Amino acid sequence: MLYPMAVIVQKYGGSSVADVKKLQQVAERVMRTRQQGHDVVVVVSAMGDTTDELLGMAKQVSPNPARRELDMLLSAGERISMALLSMAIRELGGDAISFTGSQSGIITNDRHVDARIIEVRPFRVQDELARGKIVVIAGFQGVSYKKEVTTLGRGGSDTTAVAMAAALDAEFCEICSDVDGVYSADPRVVPAARRIATLSYEETQEMAEAGAKVLNAQAVEFAKEKGIAIYARATRGPLPGPDPSSDGTVVRKSPPRMPGTVVGVASEKDVLILDAEGPAADLLALLDERGVSGKQLHVYAGRTTLALSRENLHNEAQVREALTATLGSRVRLGDGLAAVSVVGAGINATYANVRAGSEVLSAVGATPSGISTSSFRITWMIPTNRTEDAVRALHGRFIEAEQPLLP
Ligand code: ASP
Ligand code: MG
User: Fold this and answer.
1) Distance between CA 139 and CA 214 in Å, rounded?
2) How many A from CA of 19 to the centre of ligand 1?
3) In testing the pocket of ligand 1, which one of 154, 164, 214, 311 has its CB within 8 Å of the most ligand atoms?
4) Residue 154: nearest ligand to its CA?
5) 96 near 86, Cβ under 8 Å?
6) Which end of the chain, C or N, has fewer beta carbons within 10 A?
7) How many helices (H) and strands (E) does the chain have?
8) How far is the CA of 216 from the centre of ligand 1 (A)?
């Protein structure tokens, strides 16, 4: 074909493919997209709670399951949904073919359970598109240079979709789920939360890293690099019309906001704070050896602190043992803490937002034990059991009150 059609990548989350009926509805949506004249690549998550169930079984067999074996196990979830969706599309008269992450050319590093995509070689996908097929890809997985199956960390199907969209120079990437976009806070916690119409790549990345569940942080990197727009929208909603930003949330290069404006509040429960005396090198080497990635590293005056997210830490007991064996009493582990964050470009132009947030947190009994900032985010460490109240308080203060703090 001389003029190939525009490629659209659609990703469907676990709740959108939770059962056979929902898979069939997704198949219909894929067919409608195809009938609009697009080349369609579909990336699927595992059905419903499959990944959690598989992890649960692994934990019953072994308290510290080997990371390689976890990848063999967890990657099976997305294989099930990709094959079933492909069958469902074929049943509707579409010509679909399914591929695993490895078959679709997702090459990763070898950090099992939390691997990073280093390259996408989508040759087979392109060949099949050229043959007029709808390509269905198992999300959340890839293959390392050592030819080992890897997974991309929880929520990693987003990463597959956006990386694939970037590699295929797609028109755009749709992230379809049971929520119709990215909200200013989790609407189950904050009923007054609002859908955010437009987010910049940086804001989305910070929201994701701060614990918002709508888009995976690594996914955004790929979109940003290629300037690909990401549309987060409801699977049940309409197909994008001529103005695709009229529903859902669009993530794209955006003009700056009024400085000081908070766009969203996110939280992550159950983070682990490492606090160590002495050189950081030993501690960091130990974490790297075990494939554990931390965030918010601070090294100052002989102290190293960093936050570990428990989400992709499936062998915590082992890591704890190794830490005590190597560093002894030089390391302390802080438990029972949550990170609550506010996000917005330029929110730290002055300390006004930091001060205001700390004040409302203390007022609801969530006195922060730590604060860290970036140019897009303020994060407070608070007791885990105060998380919901803290999120509501920050949302009330910064978003419902609608008083952008001007520097
Ligand atoms: N099934 C995987 C998970 O639950 C990946 C994904 O849904 O994106 O984390
Ligand atoms: Mg997901």
Assistant:
1) 15
2) 15
3) 154
4) 1
5) yes
6) N
7) 11, 18
8) 10
Residues of the chain with CATH 3.40.1160.10: 7-252
Best mutation site among 43, 51, 54, 74 for ligand 1 pocket (most ligand atoms within 8 Å of CB): 51
Between CA 146 and CA 152 the distance in angstroms is 16
Which residues sit with their C-beta closer than 6 Å to ligand 1? Answer: 14, 45-46, 51, 77, 139-140, 154-158
264-400 homologous superfamily: VC0802-like (3.30.2130.10)
Query: Nearest-CA neighbor of 255 among 206, 203, 207, 220?
Result: 203
Distance from C-alpha of 308 to C-alpha of 302, rounded to nearest angstrom: 20
pLDDT at 199 over 50: yes
Buried b (16+ CB within 10 A) or exposed e, 104-131: bbbbbbebbbbbbbeebebeebbebbee
Where exactly does CATH 3.30.2130.10 map onto the chain?
264-400
Could you identify the residue written with the tokens 């008269």? 93
Q: Is the separation of the CB atoms in 396 and 361 below 8 Å?
A: no
Question: At a CB cut-off of 8 Å and minimum separation 6, what does 402 contact?
Answer: none
Ligand nearest to the CA of 158: 1
Distance CA 395, CA 338 (A): 16
Ligand nearest to the backbone CA of 48:
1
CA distance 113 to 149: 10
370 Cα to the center of ligand 2, angstroms: 29
Q: What is the pLDDT of the chain when averaged over all its residues?
A: 92
Residues in the chain: 407
Percent of the chain with pLDDT over 90: 75
Residue with the smallest CA separation from ligand 1 atom 6 is 155
User: Which homologous superfamily does the CATH classification assign to the domain defined by 7-252?
Assistant: Acetylglutamate kinase-like (3.40.1160.10)
Please report which residue ranges of 7-122 form alpha helices under DSSP H: 20-35, 50-61, 67-91
pLDDT tens-digit series, residues 355-402: 999 999 999 999 999 999 998 999 999 999 999 999 999 999 999 986
